[in-house]
Amino acid sequence: MLSFMVKGLYSKRSRLRPALFGHLSLLNIEADIREGKNLHFLKEVAPYDNTLYADTEMTRVTVLMFINELLYKTIREEEANPALFNFLIETLHWLHTPAIPMQSFHLLFMMQLMQFLGFQPALKTTSAHEYFDLEAGLFLSSEPVHQYFISGAPARAFEEISSMKFDDLPGFTLQRGVREDLLISLIDYYKLHLPEMGELKSIKILKEVLS
To answer: Mind listing the domains of the chain with CATH numbers?
Structure first.
């Protein structure tokens, strides 16, 4: 992961537009990479895809902020990962698609991101498995001996979303309470498998906007 400095971004003579550097902006860049330095300098910047810069709808912007923070707190890779990159580009295109509702978009994204982080849950094998063990990452037929599990409506929603795609969202609904419970459970699941993740500050705003 590389860090860059942009000189004089807000000056009148700057050739770069501040709008280019929004949450999860995809950019084509020309940069001065200096060996042994932690901070590098940008020379030229242009949008990777102009269709991903038009959204000002509050709900989509808020979901984008949450996804941005989640990625920042969870991805630690130094090497290129083309599969993850392509997944993120596809996600951004779906997020900016007007026909795709945002109420459960973040939940589906969290579920799909797990495969790239190494703790994708095992799918349910029988209807008798009504408990999802957050530590083990699988469904069980009896309540685990520890506190890290979900059951009832959140567990059923977890199972359903785990097999969904983004184009399934227009026909999918969750009650607000179930949606919020599932979000907390998913965050707990992430924290159990990524203890260094820390707190997500954007959750409060996300809940308010989606309510």
So the answer is: 1-54 (no CATH), 55-210 (1.20.1440.120)
